[in-house]
């Protein structure tokens, strides 16, 4: 599949990047999203992983959205990226979640010092490469603890052995970021998904987001070259933009779910001619009570998207400043917590109330409208709302910095020696070794 991309509109004021307008990006990706949306119900009914759909995204280099144009990408801003993630989530809510570590991986590389390894990995992304993750392990408690072991092989390389769960997106990806233990030190490694000794299972058994490829990955004596050991893993100190970034992807998914639910219900009401004897109008679409339900759905979708894009603007500023400004980090972290406290209840309520617009026929499995609530409920469990509310409630009266519960997590992409990072404008910033955390899925 090939596409003739529109010419960029001009520079965006950041060195090395050329701006694409929203309209130009839509010209490339809206048709792809529309085709993905057409098969969403059938995939859900048959638990069919979206391999063809991911291939269509790869063909248009969707994973290279944030790469500068001169590196083979689209030069999209964070806001533009998240606008498209909401659109993709409306088409298929599983896919933005499946690829969320990939987005973080790319932006983390863009903040790193130029060098042969970094540049080669960015070139791979420009060529369509996607990166998944294998971090969390079954039965070890906290998500930053693991038994997967990396051991020297005596020839200058290593061998990887262990089992991971919640390997979100890895079945769709070319490479996998793996957290492992090396002689008591937490490290991260980059492994080819088709490497000998890597076995992936689609055994995620949650009742929602079933097609995120979030199952088990087993590594048995996998050969790992020394240059694939990228640096510290979870366990080192350092505040990071990555926590908020990854959580905002989940909120973008919720915004997309709400929009698709709105579209589905509005279309169902528009075509329905049967109503109840005590209804307020002869046709459901004229019934003010039905209109109220649709309105609630639409409001949830609109407000959720607006909150996501507002925070995406802040992430643009944070990343363009190098990703480490403490005041901006605090602001974004708290804003994500506030947004989650607003978005989660609104979307869960709306995707429950949608069934009030009709009788028993709206529960037909042919429609699969229940998937919207199930998917929203599962997404909402990844960063539990109770902790976000506690963070906000603790910080507001006491005015101290928000407790980044995951700040002890560390680098997944750069080498141990990286102590200076460049922002997108080429400015240098001192930073602790390592970068952003990776979420639980």
TrEMBL record:
Renumbered residue ranges of the record's region Disordered: 422-441
Keyword Flavoprotein found: yes
UniProtKB keywords: Flavoprotein, Oxidoreductase
Every Acyl-CoA oxidase/dehydrogenase middle domain range: 134-222
Domain of life: Bacteria
A GO MF label: acyl-CoA dehydrogenase activity
Cellular component GO terms held in the UniProt record: cytoplasm
Domain Acyl-CoA dehydrogenase C-terminal: 250-383
GO biological process: fatty acid beta-oxidation using acyl-CoA dehydrogenase
PANTHER family membership: FLAVIN-DEPENDENT MONOOXYGENASE, OXYGENASE SUBUNIT HSAA (PTHR48083:SF19), MEDIUM-CHAIN SPECIFIC ACYL-COA DEHYDROGENASE, MITOCHONDRIAL-RELATED (PTHR48083)
Record protein name field: Alkylation response protein AidB-like acyl-CoA dehydrogenase
Organism lineage: Bacteria, Bacillati, Actinomycetota, Actinomycetes, Pseudonocardiales
């Amino acid at each position: 599949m090939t596409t003739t991309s529109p010419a960029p509109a001009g520079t965006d004021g950041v060195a090395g990047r050329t701006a694409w307008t929203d309209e130009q990006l839509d010209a490339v990706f809206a048709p792809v999203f529309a085709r993905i949306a057409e098969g969403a119900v059938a995939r859900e009914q048959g638990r069919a992983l979206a391999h063809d759909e991911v291939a269509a995204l790869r063909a248009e280099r969707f994973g290279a959205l944030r790469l500068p144009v001169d590196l083979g990408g689209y030069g999209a801003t964070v806001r533009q990226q998240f606008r498209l993630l909401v659109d993709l989530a409306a088409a298929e809510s599983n896919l933005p979640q499946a690829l969320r570590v990939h987005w973080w991986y790319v932006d983390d590389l863009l903040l790193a010092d130029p060098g042969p390894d970094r540049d080669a990995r960015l070139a791979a992304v420009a060529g369509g490469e996607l990166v998944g993750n294998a971090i969390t392990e079954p039965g070890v408690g906290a998500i930053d603890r693991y038994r997967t072991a990396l051991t020297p092989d005596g020839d200058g390389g290593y061998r990887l052995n262990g089992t991971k769960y919640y390997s979100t997106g890895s079945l769709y990806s070319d490479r996998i970021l793996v957290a492992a233990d090396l002689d008591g030190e937490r490290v991260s490694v980059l492994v080819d998904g088709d490497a000998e000794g890597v076995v992936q299972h689609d055994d995620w058994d949650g009742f929602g987001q079933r097609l995120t490829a979030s199952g088990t990955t087993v590594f048995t004596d996998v050969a790992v070259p020394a240059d694939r050991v990228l640096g510290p893993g979870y366990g080192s100190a350092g505040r990071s933009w990555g926590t908020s970034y990854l959580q905002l992807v989940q909120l973008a998914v919720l915004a997309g779910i709400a929009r698709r639910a709105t579209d589905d219900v509005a279309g169902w009401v528009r075509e329905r001619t049967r109503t109840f004897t005590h209804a307020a109008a002869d046709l459901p679409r004229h019934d003010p009570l039905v209109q109220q339900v649709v309105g609630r759905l639409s409001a949830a979708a609109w407000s959720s998207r607006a909150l996501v894009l507002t925070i995406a603007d802040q992430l643009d500023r944070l990343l363009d400043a190098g990703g480490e400004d403490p005041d901006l980090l605090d602001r974004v972290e708290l804003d994500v917590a506030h947004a989650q406290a607003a978005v989660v209840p609104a979307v869960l309520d709306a995707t429950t109330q949608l069934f009030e617009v009709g009788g028993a026929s709206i529960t037909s499995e042919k429609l699969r409208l229940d998937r919207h609530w199930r998917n929203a409920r599962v997404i909402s469990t990844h960063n539990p709302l109770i902790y976000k509310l506690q963070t906000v409630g603790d910080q507001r009266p006491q005015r101290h910095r928000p407790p980044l519960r995951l700040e002890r997590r560390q680098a997944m992409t750069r080498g141990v020696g990286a102590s200076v990072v460049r922002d997108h404008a080429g400015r240098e910033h001192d930073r602790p070794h390592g970068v952003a955390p990776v979420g639980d899925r």
